[in-house]
Amino acid sequence: MWRKRGLKVHGVNGSGRRRGGRNGEAYDGSINFGPLATRVGFNLRMAQEAAFQAFSRRSQDIGESPGRFATLTLIGRNPGISQTELSQANGRDKSSLTPVVEDLVRRGLVERKRMDSDRRTYRLHLTPSGKKVLTMMTRCARRHERNLDHVIGERDRKRFVQILKKIAAEID
């Protein structure tokens, strides 16, 4: 089942037409996905979106997004990481990550310190408030991962993660 902005998709038939609709209601199957129905990239994107939205729903009480969780985790696990290193580890360009870091700094979750040896480089650290938010987000992420394990199956999880990492590392 795929879910995108409230649309539940319960399957694809051989023609690429999907069954299921908003809130589980059936629709006539008038959307023809054509070759998208079997394209890895499209299905990967739809799966990522569904997982992102599910985690967003789980974490809304904390007031943080899945993207913030990844950033806080990387800073927490790598105290003193530079913004450049963080952008590389996070798979985001530095220009799109800078506003995220600035927001976390403004909200008192991350502390940015200039390096004495290179005044252009900042080192990032979690504040006590950032550690607290990360702890809450980690609990939420564990629940989310258990849900994903239920969907993927424990037996297939390791191989699935290996394939995802291979795609990330080797795609042109």
Share of residues in helices? 55-70%
Strand content: 5-15%
Q: Mean pLDDT across all residues, rounded?
A: 84
Q: Based on helices, strands and strand pairing, what is the structural class?
A: alpha+beta
- Sheet of most strands: 3 strands, antiparallel
- Total count of strands: 7
For the record, give the distance between the C-alpha atoms at the N and C termini, rounded to a whole number: 29 Å
Which series of helices and strands comes N to C?
Answer: EEEEHHEHHEEHH
Rg, rounded, reads: 19 Å
In terms of quaternary structure, the protein is single chain
| Tally of alpha and pi helices | 6
Low-confidence stretches: 1-27
Strand order within the widest sheet? Answer: 5-7-6
User: In one word, what is the shape?
Assistant: globular
Question: Can you put this structure into words, describing what you see?
Answer:
- Helix content is 55%, strand content 13%.
- It has six helices and seven strands.
- The protein has a three-stranded antiparallel beta sheet. A two-stranded antiparallel ribbon has the order 1-2. A two-stranded antiparallel sheet has the order 3-4.
- A hairpin with a 2-residue loop joins strand 1 and strand 2.
- Helix 2 crosses helix 5.
- The N terminus is likely disordered.
Features:
172 residues; alpha+beta; 3-stranded antiparallel β-sheet; two-stranded antiparallel sheet; 6 helices; 7 strands; 13% strand; globular; disordered N terminus
What order do the helices and strands come in, and which of them pair?
Elements: E1 2-4, E2 7-9, E3 11-12, E4 18-19, H1 40-59, H2 66-77, E5 81-82, H3 83-90, H4 94-106, E6 110-114, E7 122-126, H5 128-152, H6 154-170
Antiparallel strand pairs: 1-2, 3-4, 5-7, 6-7
Helix pairs in contact: 1-5, 2-5, 3-4
